[in-house]
Amino acid sequence: MSQYFSMTxxxxxxxxxxxxxxxxxxxxxxxxxxxxxxxxxRARLEDAEALLGGSLHYMDKVHTALSSPYExxxxxxxxxxxxALIGPNVLLYNSTFIIKEPGAPAKVNWHQDLTYWGLADADxxxxxxxxxxxxxxxxxxxxxxxxxxxxxxxxxxTDSNDGNLLLLGQHITNVDSSNAVLCSLEPGxxxxxxxxxxxxxxxxxxxxxxxxxxxQYLAPHxxxxxNAPASAMLVRGEDxxxxxxxxxxxxxxxxxxxxARWRDADAQMKANFTQN
Length: 276
Ligand SMILES: O=C(O)CCC(=O)C(=O)O
Description:
By secondary structure, the protein is α+β, with helices and mostly antiparallel strands. The chain has a single domain (3-275), classed as Sandwich (Jelly Rolls), CATH 2.60.120.620. 28% of the residues lie in helices and 22% in strands. It is built from seven helices and 13 strands. A seven-stranded mixed β-sheet has the order 1-9-4-11-2-12-13. A four-stranded antiparallel β-sheet has the order 3-10-5-8, with no helix packed on it. The longest helix is centred in the last third of the chain and has 20 residues, at 256-275. Mean pLDDT is 91; it is low at 1-12.
């Protein structure tokens, strides 16, 4: 762990969460929203899908266009945990709905996020996954390999064509998953994982959609390890580095201009995720 990381950890009162995260590479089952509030956000997502004419699965930077994911990604209860994990200054980098429809073959093979994010500092980042529908063994909740974040990068192959949702079909070829932990989440609960933590998920064989909002946060001293353009939004504390161009919060109404800007932002993120 970087010196910065452990210094900030000692100072906050979410120390137990931080200690578990340091040790295991993830924490799960953190309630950040009531079930009623979660149902309201699910309805807002499904209204947006109806308005925009299809699933919003895997569209990047969704918080720059739609108010519901922006509100979810900036919930004080979420940012308190993020602050405990990466320090007092927090950039909101990306947000994506990851939706598995009932009965679809979609799954996520064992992988590590940092192998395709292109970031310079492995510890100055964290991912949140917030359940808007039950995430269970049947619906394809994420599974994590405890302590795998301490081993650095594993070898990944690409081009698996077995329903793997990852853009390049990346997967770790040789995984001992005997101690994998299933991160079941009730609606309104979240998990937080480190970018080196090895994780995966199985297809949804339940009768409901499995809906997660996946959000990436960075400390502002992190930066792209490449020259790729990148943007982010300061959501807590201060940014004295300005390595990322500023993303704007979503406007009150969505129009063609907003949609065009969102499409460009989505394309840029996907380019960054596939070139690194
Ligand atoms: O939603 C899933 O099943 C996988 C999500 C994932 O790989 C991630 O959050 O990094």
